[in-house]
Each structure stands twice: as structure tokens, then as C-alpha cells.
Amino acid sequence: MGSHREIPLRDLSRQASRVMARVEAGETVTITKDGVPIGDIVPHGLRDGVRTGRPVYAFRTDPMGLLDLPDLGGPAIGDDAINDTLRGMGAGGD
């Protein structure tokens, strides 16, 4: 479980059931076209033998808790000011 494999798109179209059986068994499959990765098929996770309905990622995606940031001597900025600044950084510039 947890292994990774690359397969060409043409093999996916010919062997979809086999590929999906591997994914169901816990393997991540990267689909390639002309040798270039174009997408991944990832298994949904298991917790206590029950499918969680969430994909399994090779990296951490859960919140990591509070951050301990060093004091750099700048002005104190509250959450509202930070949220306003971040809101203004998105595409479209509302």
C-alpha cells in the first residue's frame, strides 16, 4: 500500500479496471501522455478499515496548529488588518 506508478494514457483506456483496482488497493497512479505526467489518480484514505472519502496525499494537508512567529520589531497587526490585506491580494482586485 502507498506505492506509486506511472502508466501511459493509452494503457489507462485499455486497462481501466486493472488500474482502478490498483488505486483501490492504495496505489497512486500518474497518467502520462507522450512520457509527460498529465494527472494523478489517488486512492481515498482508510481510517479503521473504513473509507474516509478523502484522497490520500503524500504531503500534509491538515492544519498544523498555531504558529510561533518571531517578533521582528514591526508594528502590531491584528487579524482584521491581515484579512483585509489578503483579501486585496486575490485576482480581480475587489
Describe, in plain words, how this protein is organized in 3D.
With 94 residues, the chain is α+β, with helices and mostly antiparallel strands. The chain has three helices and five strands. It has a three-stranded mixed β-sheet.
Highlighted features:
single chain, 94 residues, alpha+beta, three-stranded mixed β-sheet, 29% strand
Question: What is the fold's blueprint, element by element?
Answer:
Blueprint: E1 4-8, H1 9-14, H2 16-24, E2 28-33, E3 36-41, E4 44-47, E5 50-55, H3 79-87
Parallel strand pairs: 1-2
Antiparallel strand pairs: 2-3, 4-5
Structure summarized in a few sentences:
It is built from 3 helices and 5 strands, in the order βααββββα. With 94 residues, the chain is an alpha+beta fold.
